[in-house]
Amino acid sequence: MEKMGQRTKSTRPGLPHTGRPHGSVHLSESSLTTA
User: Fold this and answer.
1) N or C: which end of the chain has fewer CB within 10 A?
2) Positive or negative, the Cα torsion across 11, 13, 18, 19?
3) C-alpha 2: how far from its chain's center?
4) What separation in angstroms does the CA of 5 have from each of 8, 13, 22, 24?
5) C-beta neighbour count of 4 within 10 angstroms
6) Dist. CA 31–CA 26, nearest whole Å
């Protein structure tokens, strides 16, 4: 689980290409909450 958290941090700056950095952050939080 700790590894996933670290991956989320790396994915945050790498998701802007989607055009919705805020949306990705919300998704990451939702994933962590589900876990």
Assistant:
1) N
2) positive
3) 13
4) 5, 14, 17, 14
5) 12
6) 9
**Which pLDDT value is given to residue 13?**
58
Extract the tokens encoding 4. 């996933």
Would you state the structure tokens that stand for residue 1, as one six-digit string? 């689980």
Phi, psi of 31 (to 5 degrees): -65, -45
- pLDDT at 4 (0 to 100): 56
For residue 21, what are its two tokens?
A: 């950095």
Confirm whether pTM is higher than 0.70.
no
- Amino acid found at 2: E
Q: What is the pLDDT of residues 1-35, one digit of tens each?
A: 556 555 555 555 555 555 555 555 666 666 666 65
